[in-house]
Write a structure and sequence with these properties.
The chain is of the alpha+beta class. The protein has five helices and 22 strands. The protein is elongated, with a radius of gyration of 44 Å. It starts with 5 loop residues before the first helix and ends with a strand.
């Protein structure tokens, strides 16, 4: 075979070199990806939610009667004692129709009182006679002058009249109270006497609902009283999340305004849910979780907003991987592991899952690099390059 000349040899080499360069130019560039790493460490499963502080023992003082509430000088933050007068309410005066009705009722109550008194006097007279007859029959029965049946009838008659006298006395007392109540409505001095509003227990005034003089109805809230030094945290969760919470679980309080975080523990889960409209206008069933602070914070007050994190599970040392690297398929969880500059799809077994990391039970080793937020165009075996942060 005749050897190739140098010009042909150079030409052939140039064609091969051009083909190699063209192949390199047309080859797809590595897909840029974010990279994470599997590592050992602690892992917590948590629920994050907003909460508010609440005084443990809170008393809402309401108006005992309808009337004109007199202006009170009481202010929020003032310490009050049990039974202390907080405000006064003047009952309204009766109008002409009401005054006529009250006078008629008072007259009727007075007549009932007189009738009850007359009946009691009549029963008392009959009782005195029955007692004398029973005493005579006692003597006659001992002498054998009357039968046992007549003697028992005389004694029973006296006993029955004694019961009637007691009933008549109770009727007199009842009629007297009704008469006094009716007179209180008729007497203008009694009607205009201020009714005191008193504190049910010792504490601090948390809120004054009505600061100015005004007419209020019976049952209108006037004051909130409690001890701001004893606070609890109220956290409302979706009912589907609340079933995962147990008493005694740790709660971390953040965003309360001071430095660092506060510690608390779940005290109880309220047994009934309530309906709440979300910001998107969706009806949600929510449940209140009540947590007790390990240490009271004096800078917190009633109804302060906080951010609460409830720790559902706490593992001190597990193999962790970022949750953003996982995706679910029909047969379980998978992720992409970087091997030799290529992304290789691999099936893994997952344990507990936190907000940002998940426990890997099998299929991955410590230190292996994984692809975060895998794109839809990424496939197993594709060349990848770590995106610079």
């Amino acid at each position: 075979m005749k050897p190739l000349s140098k010009p042909k040899l150079f030409a052939g080499s140039g064609v091969i070199l051009a083909a190699l360069l063209l192949l390199l130019l047309l080859r797809p560039a590595p897909l840029p990806v974010d990279v994470g790493r599997a590592s050992f460490g602690p892992l917590q499963v948590t629920l994050d939610a907003e909460g508010v502080t609440r005084v443990v023992d809170r008393f809402t003082v309401a108006a005992p009667v309808s009337g004109r509430l007199l202006r009170s000088s009481l202010e929020e933050g003032v310490r009050v004692g049990a039974g202390m007068r907080l405000a006064s309410i003047v009952p309204p005066d009766l109008n002409t129709r009401e005054s006529g009705e009250a006078s008629a009722l008072a007259a009727s109550a007075g007549a009932s009182l007189g009738e009850a008194g007359a009946r009691r006097r009549l029963v008392s007279i009959h009782l005195a006679q029955a007692r004398l007859r029973a005493a005579r029959y006692d003597n006659l029965y001992r002498e054998g002058a009357v039968s046992r049946e007549n003697w028992e009838l005389a004694r029973n008659e006296a006993a029955i009249l004694e019961k009637e006298r007691q009933a008549a006395s109770s009727a007199v007392a009842s009629a007297a109270h009704r008469y006094e109540a009716a007179l209180a409505r008729v007497d203008p001095r009694l009607a205009s006497e201020p009714v005191p509003v008193t504190a049910p227990a010792e504490g601090t005034v948390l809120r004054v609902y009505e600061k100015s003089e005004k007419t209020v109805m019976a049952g209108t809230p006037l004051f909130d009283i409690g001890d701001p030094g004893r606070l609890e945290i109220v956290i409302d969760l979706l009912s589907s999340d609340a079933v995962r919470v147990r008493p005694g679980q740790t709660v971390t309080i953040e965003g309360w305004g001071g430095p660092g975080s506060l510690r608390a523990r779940v005290g109880r889960i309220e047994p009934a849910a309530f309906t709440k409209i979300s910001a998107l206008g969706i009806e949600e069933k929510r449940v209140n979780i009540i947590a007790q602070l390990d240490r009271q914070e004096l800078r917190l007050g009633d109804n302060f907003r906080v951010l609460a994190t409830i720790v559902l599970q706490d593992a001190p040392r597990v193999l962790r991987v970022p949750v953003s690297s996982l995706f679910r398929t029909g047969d379980g969880w998978r992720l992409f592991v970087i091997e030799g500059g290529r992304a290789v799809e691999r099936k893994v077994a997952i344990g507990i899952r936190g907000s940002y990391e998940a426990e890997v039970l099998g299929g991955l080793k410590d230190g292996e690099r994984v692809v975060l937020h895998p794109a839809s165009e990424l496939s197993s075996g594709m060349r990848v390059a770590e995106r610079k942060k």
